[in-house]
Amino acid sequence: MQILVAVASVFLTQGPGVASSKLTPAGRACAEARYSPDRGTKEAAPLCRKACDAGDAYGCMLWGVLLQDGDGIAQDLPAAARSFLSACDKGLADGCSLYAAALSNGVGLAKDKKKAAVFLQRACDAGSGSGCYALATLHVAGEGVKRDDAAAARLLRRGCDLGDTFGCFYLGRALVRGDGVPVDKKQGMELMVKACAKENPPPQCADENFAR
Prior knowledge:
By secondary structure, the chain is mainly α. It has helices spanning about 10-15, 25-35, 40-55, 55-70, 75-90, 95-105, 115-125, 130-140, 150-160, 165-175, 185-195.
């Protein structure tokens, strides 16, 4: 299993979707501008900053993404990390995941795998499937936490239950191999095949021997 380099939630990759019902008016304006094909990030940037300043968690998360990418505005990695932390502290699981990714990779702040694991646990507990998956990768590698295949398998199962494609794929592979769970090759293969049929599947799906 590869260590997750960056955590990207369904909200970030596919737009606000169902989550838009939780947005404040300022946050909704930010999200709609961010994901509109006709408006662009230059228009979204001031709206997202305004939403974050007004206390909207999604606004802070998207403002952080814009700052991190330097998309339509000057790149500012430390400010991006602070914005992700603000989103996390406001109760947004994906904000915790993105802050953990910044910590894990030393993007905008000092690298700290142990602290990253703490924030990934917060994300997972708050319902972020990608956060559960990312924490599982740390347990597999023994980075920031002790190596524990059984704990990793439990986290992968929770991530999969929350709809994370990578969590489902790697849970399937753990079941095929017996990594931290009893071997169940049938269920494992079913999980991997279903994950590989999803949009944006794990890159291992391109390998016909992906179960290895």
